[in-house]
């Protein structure tokens, strides 16, 4: 901590040098995957174009499928039982239990449309950049 206080202009570099090499690599990979995920969600056209051009993280074009599977597992084994336990969905007075199927259907449609969009962009840029199948 004293090194960071002594060097306020290069504090990030000093902090990074204190971490072990494996932790630095893991943090870098997690950061890159997070940035690509956010890019695919907010700016799919630009992000998919750079993914296809660089071909390093091309497998992330199937991210919506992975998100859907993980969200479905969490939904089935954690969220629905927790909501049903806390709010006692056997009683018909709580309207939140009626929203569970709505949110489940919304999640399915969102991931499906997102995957279709990314699949289309993957095919489009793959053919445009002349890499072919």
Report how far the terminal alpha carbons are from each other: 53 Å
Identify the quaternary structure here: single chain
- Shape verdict: flat
**Counting H and I runs of at least 4 residues, what is the number of helices?**
6
Helical content, roughly? over 70%
Low-confidence stretches: 1-5
Radius of gyration: 22 Å
Structure, explained:
Helices cover 76% and strands 0% of the residues. The protein is an all-alpha fold and 133 residues long. Helix 4 packs across helix 6 (99-128). The longest helix has 30 residues, at 99-128. The relative contact order is 0.10. Residues 1-5 have low confidence and may be disordered.
Strand and helix layout:
Layout: H1 2-6, H2 11-18, H3 21-42, H4 44-54, H5 63-87, H6 99-128
Helix pairs in contact: 3-4, 4-6, 5-6
Tell me briefly what this model is.
The chain has 133 residues and is an all-alpha fold.
Considering the chains and any ligands shown, give keywords for the structure:
mainly alpha; 6 helices; 133 residues; single chain; disordered N terminus
